[in-house]
Design a protein that fits this description.
The complex is a heterodimer of chains A (481) and B (216). Chain A has 481 residues and is an all-alpha fold. Chain A has helices spanning 2-20, 26-44, 49-57, 65-85, 88-98, 104-121, 124-142, 147-160, 169-178, 182-208, 216-222, 234-253, 261-276, 280-285, 289-307, 310-321, 326-343, 346-361, 366-382, 391-401, 408-434, 436-459, 462-480. The chains are: A mainly alpha (481), B alpha+beta (216).
């Protein structure tokens, strides 16, 4: 058993290392790991082939969770690909940008709103692939520096990624495993994301206010940009939009006990493929099979850790370490998953942490147990920005390819500080839920400190005002340099 | 503004059937083509066309900094793609008349104007920033001069104060003078920061220029 555990753990770590260093394609790396795990389980552990099938698609007793996740991912991929082909996201984004009417703060806010809404439907990679070139094109027309907008968008895609249970792969894995409905996920994680988004937007406006300028002439030219140039076929645009609206309505009104979200997504995907009249071969060729194979490999490796008892051991250790305090355990999961996903891809992290949380929450009622999963969803999605690794490298590459390079150092500074700020805000939110008195005290202290600083800056002695002004400017300049 | 330039191109060269302004990422800014054709695909293909030719150059080890134009002639319709700004291009679709030479020079100024309107390159953006900072710097210098004049006036006032005046009056003027002196100090600091920023931006432009010269 010990030998098997060592081999499987080594496989897991090697796959993660290969992905971080970009030495091997992630799908190939995870499939290679899965093949090694197969030999370990079958020949060293003497398991039946049925175990491999259960690792790939989930066991019958667990309701085939992995298969449900895969169906949901594939269904959403079809809908998103056709909507992208219809130019829906660029059309929606540019129409909103035109509404800014030349006010830099409005423009910044609109860019941020667009980012979170698009990333709530698309995955982070697709969102930045669509938004970064569009932002740079708009900045060329407006004659403004796109860096503040690109940096904020790169950070906010992760917030949008926690809006719905379908917004990111970790969310899909979590909600399918823990049987969290679409509406429950939105009410518990989506609304928190929305609140944190408002605070993050205020933070960005505070930092970049002085760097934002929009000349009037640029806006007049932008108004001549024909938004329909993004749309190949108006009917297709309408069909994609309607499908997305109906899909979200069905997610909300149909209970998962009646029809699960993956089946709803698949049905809508099939309907859209038929009514879109696009060449099915062309649509299928655009499906991200690399992601599917990567997931299958990770399912096997992470599942093997569960079969060999590693995950249960880690879960019990965490439960013992925190002394059974729910609030403390939730905070540990939040911070632990954030820092882990900052360096490692969040899919394997989530896949290992899900059953670990299952071990901890085994005896809790669902109302408490689900909070652990919500905390994991937030941590795994948002932690990504603590370092400019992973998906964020793509943002830097896209900016460079469009001849508007952004500094890696600046990205790291703003990403790290903003993510810490967001995780601290969520920690305060959990303090308010589990320890209201302590939470209220923290909120009051922060509000009091901010009000005092504001008043001193407005009506305090001149020397103090100067010092406060200097500190604020120093803080702003730290991100602008 | 852009529309105006398109119509001027069309009146200068009546044989131009259609105009497409597009970015290197395939986004079409404006076109005279009807929406019934697949506009995004058109932009994507035009951008790919340029990329393919650039790839051919790279394969053949030909050095290319930026292309100027790309011509594709057929019996009925000819296409000329001209480089506009840093990342933008204009494609002109001509109806081919017999033995007619295309006089592109007549539309050059409209093209330059469009380039300025839809795609300002990074150097120009920095030059704009330098200009606006220089403008700010001028304002700061003016403000500093005014403040220094105020200080001189207050100094004169202090030295001409009658000894019979109450001491609070003198203290009040000195306090004003002190506060203006502090403001002057702050202004001088701002002037130094702005001057340093301008210097940095100029250095960046110079460095870029040298790199360009070196690579050429």
């Amino acid at each position: 058993m010990i030998v098997s555990i060592i081999i499987v753990l080594a496989c897991f770590l090697a796959v993660i290392l290969l992905i971080i260093t970009d030495k091997l394609n992630r799908a190939v790396a995870s499939l290679t790991g899965a093949v090694i795990v197969y030999f370990v389980l079958i020949y060293l552990e003497g398991k039946d082939f049925k175990v491999i099938l259960e690792l790939l698609f989930g066991s019958e007793s667990e309701g085939f969770v992995n298969l449900h996740s895969l169906i949901l991912i594939i269904g959403m991929m079809f809908i998103v690909e056709i909507s992208k082909e219809a130019g829906l996201f660029q059309f929606f984004a540019l129409n909103l940008i035109k509404l800014s009417k030349g006010k830099p703060v409005y423009l910044m806010s609109i860019f941020c709103v667009i980012t979170i809404f698009i990333s709530a439907i698309l995955n982070n990679i697709l969102t930045v692939i669509i938004l970064i070139p569009l932002t740079i094109t708009v900045s060329r027309i407006l004659n403004v520096n796109p860096s503040p907008y690109i940096l904020t968008q790169a950070i906010l895609v992760n917030i949008g990624g926690t809006f719905f249970s379908i917004s990111s792969i970790p969310n899909i894995l979590i909600s399918t495993y823990a049987e969290i409905s679409f509406i429950d996920f939105f009410l518990n994680v989506g609304t928190v994301s929305l609140i944190i988004f408002v605070f993050t937007l205020l933070f960005f406006i505070f930092i970049f206010k002085k760097a934002l300028q929009v000349p009037q002439q640029g806006l007049d030219i932008l108004s001549e940009f024909n938004v329909w140039n993004f749309v190949p076929d108006k009917k297709l645009l309408l069909k994609s939009l309607l499908t997305l609206i109906i899909l979200f309505i069905l997610f909300v009104i149909i209970p998962t006990s009646l029809i699960s979200t993956d089946i709803i997504a698949l049905v809508m995907a099939v309907i859209l493929i038929i009514i879109s009249r696009l060449d099915p071969k062309q649509i299928i060729s655009k499906i991200d099979f690399e992601l599917i194979f990567y997931l299958l490999g990770i399912f096997v490796i992470a599942g093997a850790l569960e079969v060999l008892g590693v995950v249960q051991f880690l879960g019990e250790s965490m439960a013992n370490f925190s002394g059974g305090d729910v609030f403390f355990q939730i905070l540990i999961i939040l911070w632990f998953s954030s820092f882990l996903s900052s360096a490692i891809d969040n899919i394997p992290i989530t896949k290992v942490l899900i059953p670990m949380i299952g071990t901890i929450t085994g005896n809790f009622p669902a109302s408490i147990g689900d909070k652990f999963y919500y905390s994991l969803a937030i941590g795994a999605n948002w932690g990504d920005n603590l370092t400019p690794l992973g998906d964020n490298i793509l943002v830097v590459q896209l900016a460079e390819a469009n001849k508007r390079p952004i500094s890696f150092k600046q990205f790291f500074k703003i990403g790290f500080i903003t993510t810490l700020y967001q995780i601290i805000l969520v920690s305060i939110y959990y303090t308010l839920i589990f320890n209201p008195i302590m939470g209220i005290l923290i909120v009051l202290t922060i509000c009091f400190s901010l009000i005092i600083t504001y008043l001193l800056n407005k009506i305090g002695p001149k020397k103090l005002r100067d010092r406060i002004g200097k500190t604020i400017n120093g803080f702003r300049n730290m991100f602008l340099e | 503004m852009v529309f105006k330039n398109i119509s001027r191109i069309k009146s200068a060269l009546p044989e131009v059937k259609h105009v497409v302004m597009f970015y290197n990422n395939g986004t079409i800014f404006q076109t005279t083509f009807e929406q019934s054709i697949n506009i995004p695909k058109l932009g994507e293909n035009l951008a790919e066309l340029i990329n393919h030719i650039l790839n051919v150059y790279e394969l053949c080890n030909f050095k290319v900094d930026r292309y100027k134009k790309l011509i594709f002639e057929t019996e009925d319709i000819s296409v000329i793609i001209l480089k506009l700004g840093e990342e933008s291009n204009i494609a002109l679709f001509f109806k081919k008349e017999e033995d007619q030479e295309l006089k592109l020079s007549t539309i050059k100024r409209y093209i330059t104007r469009i380039e300025e309107l839809i795609d300002m390159d990074e150097k120009e953006l920095i030059l704009h920033e330098i200009l606006s900072k220089e403008e700010e710097l001028k304002k700061l210098h003016l403000l500093l001069n005014n403040k220094e004049e105020n200080i001189q006036q207050l100094q004169k006032k202090i030295s001409s104060i009658d000894k019979s005046e109450p001491i609070e009056f003198l203290k009040g003027i000195e306090k004003d003078k002190h506060s203006i002196e502090e403001e002057c100090l702050k202004l001088k600091k701002d002037i130094t920061t702005y001057s340093e920023d301008i210097l940095k931006l100029r250095e960046f432009i110079e460095k870029d220029k040298k790199l360009d010269e070196f690579s050429n």
